[in-house]
Amino acid sequence: MPLRRALPALVRDPLGALVNFAEDADGDVVRLNLGSFRPYLVSHPEHLQRVLRDNVANYTRDGDGLLWRPVRRIVGDAILVAEGEIWESSRGALQPLFTAKRAETLVDRMAEAINEAVDEWLEPALAGRPIDGGAELTRIVLRTTMRVLFADRISVPDALRISAALDTVTTAMLPRLLMPAVPYAVPMPGDRRFRDAVRTIDEVVLPIIREARARPTDGDDIISTLCRPRADGSEPDEYAIRGDVVAMFSTATETTIALLSWLWPVLSSRPDVAERMTDEIERVVGAERVGREHLPQLRYGRMVLDEMLRLYPAGWMIPRTAVGDDMLGGVRIKAGGTVLVSPYVTQRMSTFWTDPALFDPERFAPELPRRRYRYSYFPFGGGPHQCLGQYLFLLEAQLIVSTVLSRYRFRLREPVDLTPRMGASLQPKQRAELILTPVERPVAS
Questions:
Q1: Exposed end of the chain (fewer CB within 10 Å): N or C?
Q2: Comparing C-alpha atoms, which of 77, 1, 33, 40 is closest to residue 335?
Q3: Buried b (16+ CB within 10 A) or exposed e, 145-158
């Protein structure tokens, strides 16, 4: 893709440009000429499977790579960017906390925390005051995650500080992501905000880690687990623990927050989908509080979440660095080259999806045949680096959505633009202000 075409298109509309490049090539590998930086855009599911699973040893998350460097400045050599022994040590310590069996045991605690948070919406709803939909869902996610995964070692106010700092980081690092070849010695817009946000995160997280190390427990929360000696007997230092804590905080909260930020504008734009969801919730849950026993029956609600993950995957870009030469679809990938893998791109390609821009939960109806390509849909990544907490994430998201819609009907105070705001994760460009109406239920005689 020549510089004269690639660069202007990426500057105007980075996400749309990447989708168009992949579509025009019909899934073939595209090399983008961006001057001194010439990454390979890989979008075909068969090629993605080779990069993410079959030949994963050749495609690393190079912490010193141009696109990973901003992430490494946040989390250091953590599970999010590390490879080899460092990654295996952190993942091995955390894996038992995220098994499907353990996730099931956490559902009741999640439901309790979610209901407590949603109870607090009643007062503004009765008063007719609008609420900030994004901010309130953020509070629900943070309250739930801090209780279930962090044993309340991080308070909700402190979690809000970390979350706000991470939100700043995702936008402040964007210039570096778009122009990764610019040396760090050269100041760029967002650099100061980035440094201030990282400082805020350290001010919150490091004292908590020091306290946990000074008074170790046998707790099964993330911080207690990371502070213990690893399987090989090694003792991680506080900055290694800090990197993993921040990485796990981010993946355990920001993915859910990013996805649910689309809930209100998407349902507002598709009242037929919203009505079908609420009808299902009324039939399955009724006047009860949403709990573990209801989730398997809320099938359409799960289909809606799956479709939201297709159109708006939080982790929209997964860069890799080729260790050695390789062939993808007849194209030679040179050693040291950057490979761009994007769930957002592949999941919006008409080559693999019918009418891909349409929000259609029916794509995920359980009775439909399996998709032809495993990697035409991979919102949580794939291979050994697939997201640890995806099962827990889906349980939490379904609980939150079902609980909110079982208790309230909503309307947007004003329309919300569905154009994504680019950053490390994708969220709407503007927040949704909601007017809530409590669901009235007949009183039994």
A1: C
A2: 40
A3: bbbbbbbebbebeb
DSSP E strands: which ranges in 141-213?
none
C-alpha to C-alpha distance for 400 and 211, rounded to whole angstroms: 32
What is the residue type of 329? G
SS3 assignment, position 17: helix
Residue 361 to residue 308: CA distance in whole angstroms: 8
d(CA 350, CA 26): 9
Round to whole Å and give the CA distance between 24 and 20: 6
Helix or strand (DSSP H, E) at 148: helix 133-148
Measured CA to CA, the distance from residue 88 to residue 128 in angstroms comes to: 51
- The Cα 282–Cα 143 span in angstroms is 26
Q: Which residues, 6 or more positions from 149, have their beta carbon under 8 angstroms from its beta carbon?
A: 97, 221, 222, 248, 252
Query: For residues 42 and 51, is the Cβ–Cβ distance under 8 A?
Result: yes
Rounded to two decimals, the pTM is: 0.89
Spell out the residues 6+ positions from residue 135 whose beta carbon is closer than 8 angstroms to its own.
431
- Strand partners for 410: 436
pLDDT one-digit tens code per residue, 200-209: 999 999 999 9
**pLDDT tens string 43-101:** 999 999 999 999 999 998 865 555 566 677 777 666 666 677 777 888 888 888 888 88
